[in-house]
Structure to design on (174 residues):
C-alpha cells in the first residue's frame, strides 16, 4: 500500500487507516511489508527460488509477480480494491523491465540504492519471472550472501499502472 506524503499521509495516519480497513490478523503483515510513504507505484511480493542461484554470475531467477490478485489502495479515494496485473501480450512491458535497476527496498534516492540489474524478464506458467544480477560492491555483499543462504526469499516489483479496467468479477485488471 502506498500513502503519498504529498497528500498529507504520515506513518501514524497510514497505520490508523490499515487498522480500520483490515482484519486484526492481517494488520501486522500489512504494516510490516506494505506500508510506504515514498512513491506512487505498487509493490507486489513473490518468492525467489534459491535453487536458481548462479554464484559465479551473481544471478538468481525470481518470481517477480505470481499472477495472484492483490489488495491495493486507491491513493485518491482511500478505497481498497483488488488488482491483477495482466501478463498477456500488450498488458505488460517486458522490454522496460529488462535492464531495470534492482533496488534495496524500493529506495531510489542514490545510485548506491541500486544493488543490481534485471538481466531478463519473461512470462512462464502464468507468472512474471526475472533474472536478477547483483553488484559485486562491498556494501551489496551481505545482501547477496543472505540471498544465497536462503534468508532473503522475497522480492517486490514496482509496477507503473498505465490503465486499468474493472472486470466482471469486480477485480481490476491493469
Amino acid at each position: 500500500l502506498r500513502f503519498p506524503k504529498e497528500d498529507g499521509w504520515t506513518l501514524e495516519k497510514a497505520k490508523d487507516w490499515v487498522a480500520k480497513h483490515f482484519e486484526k490478523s492481517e494488520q501486522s503483515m500489512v504494516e510490516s511489508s506494505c506500508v510506504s510513504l515514498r512513491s506512487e507505484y505498487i509493490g507486489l511480493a513473490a518468492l525467489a527460488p534459491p535453487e536458481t542461484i548462479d554464484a559465479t554470475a551473481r544471478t538468481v531467477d525470481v518470481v517477480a509477480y505470481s499472477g495472484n490478485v492483490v489488495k491495493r489502495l486507491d491513493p485518491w479515494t482511500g478505497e481498497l480494491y483488488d488488482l491483477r496485473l495482466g501478463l498477456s501480450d500488450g498488458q505488460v512491458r517486458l522490454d522496460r523491465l529488462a535492464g531495470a535497476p534492482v533496488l534495496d527496498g524500493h529506495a531510489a534516492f542514490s545510485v548506491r540504492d541500486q544493488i543490481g540489474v534485471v538481466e531478463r524478464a519473461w512470462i512462464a506458467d502464468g507468472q512474471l519471472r526475472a533474472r536478477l544480477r547483483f553488484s559485486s560492491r562491498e556494501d551489496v555483499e551481505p545482501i547477496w550472501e543472505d540471498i544465497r543462504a536462503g534468508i532473503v526469499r522475497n522480492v517486490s516489483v514496482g509496477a507503473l499502472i498505465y490503465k486499468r479496467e474493472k472486470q466482471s468479477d469486480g477485480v481490476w485488471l491493469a
